[in-house]
Amino acid sequence: GIQVEQSPPDLILQEGANSTLRCNFSDSVNNLQWFHQNPWGQLINLFYIPSGTKQNGRLSATTVATERYSLLYISSSQTTDSGVYFCAVERWETSGSRLTFGEGTQLTVNP
Amino acid sequence: EAGVAQSPRYKIIEKRQSVAFWCNPISGHATLYWYQQILGQGPKLLIQFQNNGVVDDSQLPKDRFSAERLKGVDSTLKIQPAKLEDSAVYLCASSRRLVPTGELFFGEGSRLTVL
Predict the structure, then answer these.
(1) Which residue among A10, B47, B91, B114 sits deepest, i.e. has the most Cβ atoms within 10 Å of its Cβ?
(2) Strands B10-13 and B110-114
(3) Contacts of B101 in chain A (CB under 8 A)
(4) Whether B66 contacts B56, CB under 8 Å
């Protein structure tokens, strides 16, 4: 099956710093999503981004499908950004569509 | 709109006992997923429904896990008998359609501890 690798596995920042999280995938994909899992375990969809760049406030994401990677940018980080960030890639198969998650990047933002 | 509802939030059982988790997806969402998330790992798909039919259950340990989605709305995931390695968070998610998936919405999860 497709392999999804996220880096770095852990990241510690001071409030106000910027960061870039990376997601590499081993095969072509039809779609890609970024999620944030807060410290209480809730997974929230951040971006649905098969290609190109999207922005939502202090967060933006870029997917370069031809080169099999996606980047999540967090600017002016806040303590509430702490948690685990997952990317998930979607592949359409004869039986339907399957999402495969990476192992995540654990982000800690200190005040 | 109301989100994905799951219950119970927490469950502690002893090995070889059984447990059931319930999920109510967002209204109108045709596709429902059950994921298992072990501590420190990404979610792993267990089973995927389109309305009340199973689309993908290739990673479901069928000797002990079962799931159903009667009437194409609510779903139940059962584990019987439970093993220590089943300790995890069981996440239910839903999306509007099957292909493409579209945005995936998750419930808060059901945390299972097997002693």
Answers:
(1) B91
(2) parallel
(3) 31, 90, 97, 99
(4) no
The helix/strand/coil state of B38 is: coil
SS3 of A46, please? strand
Q: CA-to-CA distance for A93 and A102, rounded, in angstroms?
A: 19
| Chain center to CA of A45 | 10
Instruction: Say if residues B95 and B102 touch (Cβ distance below 8 Å).
Output: yes
**What's the confidence (pLDDT) of residue B86?**
97
Q: Do B48 and A98 touch (CB under 8 A)?
A: yes
CB contact under 8 A, A96 and B41: no
CA distance B63 to A103: 27
Per-residue confidence band for B46, with pLDDT thresholds at 50, 70 and 90: very high
pLDDT tens string A68-105: 999 999 999 999 999 999 999 998 877 677 889 999 99
pLDDT of residue A80: 94
CA angle B67-B73-B75, nearest 5°? 20
Q: Rounded to an integer, what distance in angstroms lies between the CA atom of residue A95 and that of residue A53?
A: 30
